[in-house]
C-alpha cells in the first residue's frame, strides 16, 4: 500500500520543479554506492512522482512543502536518493525563477533542458548550505559518501576545475556554500543557516541528544526563508512504536493532517508498506506478495519485465508504455507499482531473514514490510486491529483534510433501521470527547463525532463544544434505531440526566437492573470495566465477518470501521496489569493512555468499549425483552 499525504492532482504536478530535478539527477548523477557506484541513475515512475511532489509549487511559485517524509523498507536506496537530491540542492536550479513561455532553456555541463509553456523555470540557491545528519558517523556516510563520490568520479567531477573542493568532512561549492555531514550535538548547529537538511533514518532519532539536533537544525531553516526557501528531507524505515522518535512524531503529524487538525500543512508524507498480518508471515505466497507490495519498483522482477499491482492485489506485467494486457496502468485508480526490470532488491534475501528463527518478528515487519508493529504494552496488537478493519476503501477515498465528522462516511454503511448502540466518553478542556456507535448484528464500531484538543497555540483556551455534542447525541437518538447507550458520567452528569429524561420512551438497555439506562461510572465500576476490556479483547481474537442477519447476531463479534481517528485511539490504548488475578489465574488489568498527560488520546477507544458493552448487554437481555417498536418524536421548541 502507498499512503501519500496530501495526494497531489495532475495540475499540482504540472506546477513543479520536480521534472527539472528528475532530468538533472538522471543526467549528472551516478548511483554512488555499492555495488553500482558508476551506474547512471534511472528513476522509476514511482520515484519520479516523488521528486515531482517534493518540488511542487503554489500559484505564486513558492514551495508547497518545507518538510518531506520518505518511508520505505530496508534496502530501497533512501540514503542515495537523499544524497542525490542534496547535490541538486547544492548545484542545480532548484528554486523558482519564473514561468516559461516555452522554448526557454537551461544548460549545464554541456547538456540542455528545454522548458515547456507554463512550466516553472529554476535557478540555483545563492550560498547553499546542505547538511546531512544521522545517528552516527557511519550512518551519515551513507548520504555524504554518495555526494562525495559523485563530486569526485561522476559527471559533476568536471566542476573540480571551477572551484569544487571535495574533502572527507566537507565539499566546498564553486559559487560559494558547502555540503557537510552533521555532528550530533545541537549546540554545534545553533546559529546555522542551512538551506537543505537530509535527516537519514529518523526512526533512530529517539534520544534527547539526537532529537535536539534535529529540532535545532529545523528551526534554523527559518533564517533563509526569504531567499532560499529551505526544507528538510526525512528518510526512514518504520519506527518502533513507543520510542517517540522523530519518525514517530512525523507519522502522527501526517495523521493529524489527514484528519484535518492541522491548518496550512507544509508536510509531504510518502509511506509505502504492506499490511500483511503477523500470522501470515509463514505463508510463502502471502509473504512474497507482501514484500512486492512494500518494495514496489525497487523489487527486482524475476522475468525481466515491469509489473503493476492492481486494486484486487494481483500482480501483472506491463508493456513498454506501462500498460497491462487489460489496459491498466499506474494512472488507473488503485493501481500501484510492482516489481520492475530495473529493481535491485531480490526479495529472496528478505524472505530468508524473516523466516530465520533467530530474527525478531517485530523487527522483520518494520524493516521489510515497513509496517507498524505494536508497543509491548499495547492492549490490542496491530495484527488484531488490522484483521478487524472494515470499510478501508470507504475512508481511503476521502480527500485529505476533510472534516470526517461532517462528511460522516459511516452513513453509507449504517442505515437508520439498523439496531445500534452508542458509547460516549467526554472531557471538557483536555483529552478528547467521542461518540461511537456499534451495529448490533455484527459488532461494527463507527466513530460518529470526535473533538480533540489541538496542538500548538490553539490549545491554550480550547474547550469541547458541549452543545454540539448534545445536538449530535439527540440527533442520533431521534433518527437512528438506538437500543442501548452507555455514557461516562464524569463531567457530563447534567447532560446525561437530560438524555435519560427526554428519551425514557426508548426503553434503552441499562448496565444495572433498575438503574440509570445511560449513565455509566467508568471510574467507579472497576469490575464492569475489567470485564468489558476482557470481552472486547476476546472478540478481537476471533475472526470477524460482516453479518446481514439481524435475527442471529453473534455476541462475540467486533470490528472497526476504518476511520483513522478511531483506529489511532485504539492503537494508543495501553494495558496496565493489576496485582490481582482472576479465578482462572489470568492477570486482571485496566486500559489507560500512555501517560496521564500524553497527547496520544484513547477517548474514542473507551467510547467504543462502552458502545460494545451496551451491545453485549442488549443481546444478553434480548430473549427476555418484549419486541421493540421504533417511535419517532418530533420536537417543538417554544
Give the topology, please.
Layout: E1 2-5, H1 10-14, H2 18-28, H3 45-54, E2 67-71, H4 78-91, E3 95-99, E4 105-108, E5 111-114, E6 120-123, E7 129-133, H5 137-153, E8 165-166, E9 171-172, E10 178-181, H6 186-189, E11 196-200, H7 208-220, H8 225-228, E12 231-236, H9 246-258, E13 267-272, H10 284-295, E14 307-309, E15 315-317, E16 336-337, H11 348-355, H12 361-368, H13 382-386, E17 389-390, H14 392-396, H15 404-407, E18 419-425, E19 432-439, E20 444-452, H16 466-479, E21 481-488, H17 493-502, E22 519-520, H18 526-540, E23 559-561, H19 564-572, E24 574-581, E25 587-592, H20 603-621
Parallel strand pairs: 2-12, 2-13, 7-10, 7-11, 11-12, 17-23, 18-21, 20-23, 21-22
Antiparallel strand pairs: 1-13, 3-6, 4-5, 8-9, 9-10, 14-15, 14-16, 18-19, 19-20, 24-25
Helix pairs in contact: 2-3, 4-5, 18-20, 19-20
Can you describe what's shown?
It is built from 20 helices and 25 strands. Residues 629-638 have low confidence and may be disordered. The strands form six sheets. A nine-stranded mixed sheet has the order 1-13-2-12-11-7-10-9-8, sandwiched between helices. It folds into three domains: 2-14 and 58-92 and 124-272, Rossmann fold (3-Layer(aba) Sandwich), CATH 3.40.50; 276-373, no CATH class; 384-396 and 416-572 and 601-624, 2-Layer Sandwich (Nucleotidyltransferase, domain 5). The longest helix is centred in the C-terminal third of the chain and has 19 residues, at 603-621. The two termini are 54 Å apart. 45% of the residues are buried. It is of the alpha/beta class and 638 residues long.
Amino acid at each position: 500500500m502507498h499512503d501519500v499525504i496530501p495526494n497531489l492532482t495532475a495540475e499540482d504536478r504540472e506546477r513543479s520543479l520536480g521534472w527539472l530535478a528528475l532530468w538533472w539527477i538522471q543526467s549528472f548523477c551516478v548511483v554512488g554506492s555499492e555495488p553500482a557506484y558508476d551506474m547512471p541513475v534511472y528513476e522509476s515512475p514511482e520515484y519520479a512522482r516523488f521528486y515531482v511532489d517534493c518540488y511542487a509549487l503554489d500559484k505564486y511559485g513558492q514551495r508547497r512543502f518545507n518538510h518531506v517524509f520518505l518511508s520505505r523498507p530496508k534496502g530501497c536506496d533512501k540514503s542515495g536518493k537523499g544524497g542525490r537530491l542534496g547535490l541538486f540542492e547544492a548545484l542545480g536550479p532548484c528554486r523558482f525563477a519564473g514561468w516559461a513561455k516555452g522554448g526557454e532553456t537551461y544548460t549545464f555541463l554541456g547538456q540542455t533542458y528545454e522548458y515547456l509553456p507554463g512550466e516553472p523555470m529554476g535557478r540555483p540557491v545563492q550560498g547553499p548550505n546542505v547538511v546531512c545528519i544521522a545517528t552516527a558517523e557511519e550512518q551519515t556516510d551513507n548520504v555524504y559518501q554518495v555526494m562525495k563520490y559523485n563530486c569526485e568520479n561522476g559527471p559533476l567531477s568536471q566542476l573540480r576545475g571551477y572551484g569544487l573542493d571535495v574533502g572527507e568532512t566537507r565539499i566546498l561549492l564553486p559559487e560559494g556554500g558547502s555540503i557537510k555531514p552533521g555532528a550530533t550535538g545541537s549546540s554545534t548547529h545553533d546559529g546555522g543557516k542551512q538551506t537543505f537538511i537530509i535527516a537519514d533514518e529518523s526512526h533512530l532519532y529517539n534520544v534527547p541528544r539526537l532529537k535536539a539536533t534535529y529540532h535545532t537544525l529545523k528551526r534554523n531553516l527559518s533564517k533563509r526563508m526569504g531567499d532560499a526557501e529551505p526544507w528538510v528531507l526525512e528518510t526512514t524505515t518504520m519506527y518502533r512504536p513507543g520510542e517517540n522518535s522523530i519518525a514517530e512524531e512525523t507519522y502522527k503529524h501526517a495523521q493529524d493532517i489527514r484528519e484535518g487538525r492541522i491548518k496550512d500543512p507544509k508536510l509531504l508524507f510518502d509511506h509505502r508498506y504492506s499490511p500483511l498480518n503477523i500470522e501470515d508471515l509463514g505463508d510463502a505466497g502471502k509473504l512474497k506478495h507482501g514484500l512486492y507490495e512494500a518494495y514496489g519498483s525497487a523489487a527486482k522482477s524475476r522475468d525481466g519485465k515491469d509489473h503493476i499491482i492492481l486494486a484486487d492485489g494481483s500482480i501483472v506485467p506491463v508493456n513498454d508504455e506501462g500498460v497491462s494486457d487489460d489496459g491498466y496502468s499506474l494512472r488507473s485508480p488503485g493501481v500501484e507499482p510492482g516489481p520492475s526490470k530495473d529493481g535491485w532488491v531480490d526479495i529472496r534475501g528478505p524472505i530468508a531473514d524473516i523466516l530465520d528463527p533467530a530474527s525478531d518478528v517485530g523487527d522483520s515487519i518494520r524493516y521489510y514490510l515497513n509496517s507498524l508493529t505494536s508497543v509491548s504494552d499495547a492492549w490490542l496488537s496491530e495484527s488484531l486491529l488490522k484483521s478487524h478493519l472494515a470499510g478501508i476503501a470507504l475512508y481511503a477515498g476521502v480527500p485529505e483534510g476533510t472534516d470526517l465528522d461532517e462528511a460522516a462516511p459511516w452513513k453509507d454503511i449504517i442505515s437508520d433501521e439498523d439496531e445500534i448502540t452508542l458509547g460516549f466518553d467526554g472531557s471538557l478542556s483536555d483529552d478528547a470527547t467521542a461518540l461511537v456507535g456499534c451495529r448490533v448484528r455484527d459488532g461494527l464500531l463507527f466513530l460518529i463525532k470526535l473533538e480533540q484538543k489541538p496542538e500548538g497555540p490553539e490549545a491554550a483556551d480550547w474547550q469541547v463544544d458541549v452543545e454540539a455534542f448534545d445536538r449530535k447525541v439527540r440527533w442520533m437518538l431521534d433518527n437512528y434505531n438506538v437500543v442501548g447507550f452507555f455514557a461516562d458520567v464524569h463531567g457530563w452528569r447534567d447532560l446525561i440526566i437530560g438524555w435519560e429524561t427526554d428519551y425514557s420512551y426508548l426503553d434503552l438497555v441499562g448496565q444495572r437492573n433498575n438503574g440509570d439506562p445511560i449513565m455509566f461510572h467508568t471510574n467507579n465500576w472497576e469490575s464492569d470495566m475489567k470485564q468489558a476490556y476482557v470481552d472486547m479483547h476476546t472478540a478481537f481474537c476471533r475472526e470477524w465477518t460482516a453479518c446481514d442477519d439481524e435475527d442471529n447476531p453473534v455476541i462475540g463479534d467486533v470490528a472497526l470501521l476504518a476511520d483513522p481517528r478511531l483506529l489511532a485511539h485504539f492503537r494508543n490504548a495501553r494495558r496496565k496489569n493489576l496485582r490481582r488475578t482472576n479465578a482462572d489465574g489470568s492477570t486482571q488489568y485496566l486500559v489507560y493512555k500512555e501517560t496521564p498527560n500524553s497527547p496520544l488520546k484513547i477517548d474514542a477507544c473507551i467510547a467504543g468499549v462502552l458502545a460494545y458493552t451496551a451491545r453485549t448487554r442488549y443481546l444478553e437481555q434480548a430473549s427476555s425483552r418484549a419486541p421493540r417498536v421504533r417511535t419517532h418524536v418530533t420536537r417543538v421548541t417554544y
